[in-house]
Specification:
Elements lengths: L1 E5 L5 E9 L2 E9 L7 H15 L6 E4 L3 H13 L4 E4 L1 H13 L2 H12 L4 H8 L12 H12 L1 H10 L2
Parallel strand pairs: 4-5
Antiparallel strand pairs: 1-2, 2-3
Helix pairs in contact: 1-2, 4-6, 5-7
């Protein structure tokens, strides 16, 4: 598996992970800031990892569903006939939730949820639950935020009446 993300300095880092019956293990990371959009470079990086792990031990490669990663996966399957590339299910769901969030019937609620500014001390006092906060790059967290607010709505409503 490999996961592309940006650090606080806006570098594009790729984490390479290996999953086996014992669990998932971090293998290495690469700073790919200069070439993250280049499918051929990504292919060379991934191909080296397959070599290091051992081609006979690798069955499936999972990446996100961006076009550069799709191209990388297809190149890898072309070279190594027994391997399968699969887009990350979580990334696919995240993309679907992003599209759903653009629908007018959901857009306003999500905008309001992102703007909700709750007094976290009151929330902790009345619910003993931390609010799941939205992250700019992950659309599913907006839905998780709405769900967490909905789950604790009664203690929050009661607490706001008590403190009026």
């Amino acid at each position: 598996m490999f996961d592309d993300w940006q650090d606080v300095r806006h570098r594009s880092l790729i984490n390479f992970l290996v999953n086996n019956p014992s669990g998932t293990v971090f293998l290495k990371y690469v700073d790919a800031s200069e070439h993250v959009k280049d499918a051929k470079l990504l292919f060379r990086l991934l191909d080296k990892v397959v070599e290091k792990v051992g081609e006979e031990l690798v069955v499936q490669v999972i990446t996100d569903n961006a076009s550069n990663y799709r191209a990388t996966g297809l190149m890898l399957m072309e070279k190594r006939k027994h391997l399968y590339w699969t887009p990350c299910a979580a990334h696919c769901l995240d993309l679907m939730l992003e599209k759903i969030g653009e629908l007018s019937q959901h857009k306003n609620a999500l905008i309001k949820a992102k703007k909700v500014s709750l007094n976290l001390n009151l929330m902790r006092q009345f619910t003993n639950i931390e609010l799941i906060r939205s992250v700019a790059t992950r659309f599913s967290t907006a839905y998780l935020t709405l769900q967490s607010i909905y789950q604790v709505r009664q203690p929050l409503e009661f607490g706001s009446y008590v403190h009026l």
